[in-house]
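Example record used in the benchmark description.
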Amino acid sequence: MRFLLVGVVVLAACVNGDTGGETTEGTTQTTTRGQTQATSPPPGIPPAPNVPASSLSVDTETAIDDLLADVLTTDWDVTRVEALVDAGDARTAWLIADLLRFYQRGSETESLASAFVDLTGAEWDPNEVEFVWASNHLIAWDLPAWDGYPEAKRRIFGPLDEIWDGFFADDHHIDWRLVTWGGVAPDTRPLDDNGPCPCIPALDHPETIDAGSGDWYRDRDVVFGVVVDEEAIALPKNMMEVHEMVHVTLGGRELGIPYCTLCGSAQAYYVDEVPGVDRVVLRTSGLLSRSNKLMYDHTTGSAIDTFTGRALSGPLAASGVTLEQVSVAASTWGDWKESHPETRIIAEDGGIARTYVEDPLGGRDAAGPIFPVGDVDPRLLSQDKVVGVVKADGTSVAFPVTETRAALADGPIEFEGLTVRLQDSIRVYDSVGRELVSHESFWFAWSQFHEGTLLWVAEEAN
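Model output (structure tokens):
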């Protein structure tokens, strides 16, 4: 990797240092969330700048080529940024935001920030991290890019890692406007290599113990529980905050279980019966999209949307693969083992002789999202926790965790043909009693992947 950047402050997504995300068809960056100018920006965001619908001008193309000629080296020529501003195409603000991710100190940051303001008319907020502020404006505006934007962005990201370069080379569904660096390198280790790495290290087939031997974990602490064919496992949250990816064998099936700490979302995917590949090996790529980690398959090099399981690049995307999900229950260890007395839990040292502290993240997200998320559906706060499901007809529904748990003390909730019950966690059933796949996440993440989701509110329980 070529992460030898002078004057860069790395904002990292993980305890050690984390996209899937919203997608468009193909590599053409035509917006799918709006028109060329947002009609009603969220509070605090000014109206979007007008942008041309035509191809880039010759002056703009020349300015981009000059700006990226020796990008991310120790050489910096402010006149190249000024030439981009003089060309006057606000679409190139996407490149400015990309560069601000890597230049977070000194004159480089000042010139890029000034260029962003000049191109978009936004008023700079000195209290914000520059690349987060800039990206949040662009995403909220849903500002279009131009057809050549992915290749321009590849000139920044591609040389840094061959895994990332492969995503650009075989891209099917990635909206590159939304992708940024999470501050860490990709996990390139093969399956069952649990050795150290300069990455967020997946934990493959960890040692597990029975519930009776799991008293090392406090009953009040959170686990992520999964059941396949009546076989249950509990994954301690503090371990998942370190590894963000676990592979287990459960009920005779192979599962990959990513945890996006930034989204508050643990999900479980079958990885052993995927068309065109013997098995998928899920790994963290080090990239993010709207604060959602982008995972990839080590076997084929295909990028996969962590939140939906949809393959975005590579052979898996070409085959139209979307990984099948299994419900993940966010529960306490006490409640989980009471409901599932035969459950197993990961051994205290993970089977790798590692010590796990109680709070690996140290309150990292207490002040809100630390990476760009854009505009957030205002019906809830961005980090309110919800349990989400998708009905058979494609309708998505979300249940705020705190309010739902309180209402369930009085019995099941009926909403939109669904029945919600409190068991080992919040469980959701359809009209014929079948459990729907569910998982917990922060509201900003659920709502951005399921725009227009139906939201249960406490008043509707009466």
